[in-house]
Amino acid sequence: MPERTEGVAVATTHTARPARPARLPAQPGPPVPPAGTIRYWAAAKAAAGTPEEPYAASTLADALAAARGRHEGKPEFARVLSRCSFLVDGDPVGTRDHSTVQLAEGGTVEVLPPFAGG
């Protein structure tokens, strides 16, 4: 259709776009584990040397194994961790096998060493 410019008809031409190459289907990669925060309290905080650190793990067992790996030069960390109890998103883990405790995206693992008193 002609285009009008200041009362004068001007023919316009359109150039065809080159064809887009076909997209390849997305390649499935390995699943990305959930990411969240491990919070250390009292002796666990002192042994870790930090109040918190991130996790990228699907289970509590995987998150704790990664934490042990990050702190392998600190033998006190592993010793304290072995005596701790854990809360995952506010729920006590208790005696459940850590490999069965699923972690969520944006979740929180609280690492609680034994406390005196009550």
CATH superfamily: Beta-grasp domain
Quick one: overall form? elongated
Biggest β-sheet description: 5 strands, mixed
Mean of residue pLDDT?
Answer: 87
Low-confidence parts lasting 5 or more residues at pLDDT below 50?
Answer: none
Strand order of the largest sheet: 4-3-7-5-6
Task: State which percent range the strand residues make up.
Answer: 15-25%
Order of helices and strands: EEEHEHHEEE
CATH C-level name: Alpha Beta
CATH topology: Ubiquitin-like (UB roll)
How many DSSP E strands?
A: 7
Please tell me the CATH architecture by its name.
Roll
Number of domains: 1
List the total number of helices: 3
Q: What distance lies between the first and last C-alpha atoms, to the nearest angstrom? A: 85 Å
Report on this structure:
- InterPro entries: Beta-grasp_dom_sf, Mopterin_synth/thiamin_S_b, ThiS/MoaD-like.
- It comes from Streptomyces triculaminicus.
- This is MoaD/ThiS family protein.
- The chain is an alpha+beta fold.
- The protein has one domain (32-118): Ubiquitin-like (UB roll) (Roll), CATH 3.10.20.
- It contains three helices and seven strands.
- The strands form two sheets. It has a five-stranded mixed sheet.
- The longest helix has 11 residues, at 60-70.
- The mean pLDDT is 87.
